[in-house]
Amino acid sequence: MLTATDPHEELRTAVRALCATFPAEYHRRIDREHAYPEAFVDALTKAGWLAALIPEAYGGSGLGLAEASVIMEEINRSGGNSGACHGQMYNMGTLLRHGSEAQKRRYLPPIAAGELRLQSMGVTEPSTGTDTTRIKTVAVRKGDRYVVNGQKVWISRVQHSDLMILLARTTPLSEVRRKSEGLSIFIVDLREAVGSGLTVRPIPNMVNHETNELFFDNLEIPAENLIGEEGLGFRYILDGLNAERVLIAAECIGDGYWFIDKVVPYVKERIVFDRPIGQNQGVQFPIAEAYIEIEAANLMRFEACRRFDAHEPAGAQANMAKYLAAKAAWEAANACLQFHGGFGFANEYDVERKFRETRLYQVAPISTNLILSYIAEHVLGLPRSF
Ligand SMILES: Cc1cc2nc3c(=O)[nH]c(=O)nc-3n(C[C@H](O)[C@H](O)[C@H](O)COP(=O)(O)OP(=O)(O)OC[C@H]3O[C@@H](n4cnc5c(N)ncnc54)[C@H](O)[C@@H]3O)c2cc1C
Q1: Ligand 1 centroid vs 131 CA: distance in angstroms?
Q2: With a 6 A CB cut-off, is 369 part of the ligand 1 pocket?
Q3: How far is the CA of 85 from the CAs of 24, 41, 258, 345, in angstroms?
Q4: Atom of ligand 1 at shortest distance to CA of 373?
Q5: Is the CB of 360 under 6 A from ligand 1?
Q6: Structure confidence at residue 296 (pLDDT)
């Protein structure tokens, strides 16, 4: 919560001020029209918030993951949906930590200036799902190019991005010692690729989230677009996924506070049986419980940020933060919808929209079960189940 001792108070105030210029009606209309919040994303970009993680030497503000997460949290707390632009934050991390100096010089300054968007990351595939190391999209080196064939699904913001980070297999699974080896990541210039080996098919879905099926048919990528060393892509992507989990935890925390901020005044004012419904403990307790869980998730989120920014292992904390925050936001969403009664279902209250938006994070970018499995096996040392 915003307190006098909040080290991010100044940052929060500035992001809130910008978000306040895009009122609930704006986000409601974008949702209703299944549109992309172009003006909102442009304003965030111009203000430099989406370049928070880019070092000053490349034109960004050189902030850490903690600050980046506060930006995402405030967007969601304001009633917006960071899902339209959060890709830019975590994809940047992959380029920053593993890209060559030439790649950073080429891409980061125009991204920081808002001339180029890096909003997309292509990992998930239809036939392998969460079993990422078995992906079937292949990139085969031919001279100074890689030729990509395969298929991806649920790849977001492709229609509103210039660049995409792509995970593909460069050495067949049968030829590697460990299944996590032989995968590589590339920067794909979507402006050149779409129509020249890459086909994009949008997927209408429950949330207003621009996401797509991708079909690669002999797409050629310059070899210089390989990030880091060939075959080490899975390791690189894991780092990026930890950042993604922390940022999404922060978005869920923003959602959670939004639901609490919405439901508390409502239950104080809504009179049924001659008293405010918020006077009933049956109403108070689910709200109090959700609030406690949001606060707890917040602590884990900042611990994950601290570790990530200090280059310490952060996998466990990033996963736990995402788990706690997604669950807390969902419980807050349920309480908020429930205690608005019928009004919770009316579009003009925004509760149903935020309810749909926050539900996504139990499944994506990693499902709750897979987090439990990670903690069981990698933190508690229980036998592997797959
Ligand atoms: C709106 C949206 C946007 C997305 N954007 C992107 C994107 O930009 N880039 C990208 O690469 N991907 C993206 N995704 C994909 C997302 O990361 C996956 O949907 C998610 O990781 C789950 O994978 P899956 O859908 O293949 O589910 P599956 O792997 O088929 O799993 C289905 C369910 O089965 C359960 N399950 C699976 N395996 C186990 C197990 N071993 N133990 C217990 N339970 C298990 C889980 O509950 C899981 O939710 C997006 C998805 C959505 C819905």
Answers
A1: 9
A2: yes
A3: 18, 7, 19, 27
A4: 42
A5: yes
A6: 98
d(CA 84, CA 88): 9
Distance CA 235, CA 229 (A): 11
Cα(121)–Cα(185) distance, rounded to whole angstroms? 10
Give the separation between CA 264 and CA 340, rounded to whole angstroms: 10
Q: 230, 244, 251, 357: which is the annotated catalytic residue?
A: 244
Which of 263, 192, 177, 273 minimizes the C-alpha distance to 225?
Answer: 192
Distance CA 315, CA 346 (A): 39
The protein residue whose alpha carbon is closest to atom 9 in ligand 1 is 155
pLDDT along the chain (386 residues), means of 10: 76 98 98 97 96 95 96 98 92 90 97 95 96 97 98 97 98 96 98 98 96 98 98 92 95 98 98 98 98 98 97 96 98 98 98 98 96 98 96
Asked whether 297 and 308 are in contact (CB, 8 A), the reply is: no
Contact 151, 167 (CB under 8 A): no
Q: Quick one: which of 243, 223, 272, 235 has its CA closest to 102?
A: 223
Q: Which of 212, 363, 372, 384 should be mutated for ligand 1, with most atoms under 8 A from CB? A: 363
- Specify the pLDDT at position 74: 98
Q: Specify the residue with its C-alpha closest to ligand 1, atom 45.
A: 369
CA-120 nearest atom, ligand 1: 8
222 pairs with which residues across the strands? 145
244 annotated active-site: yes
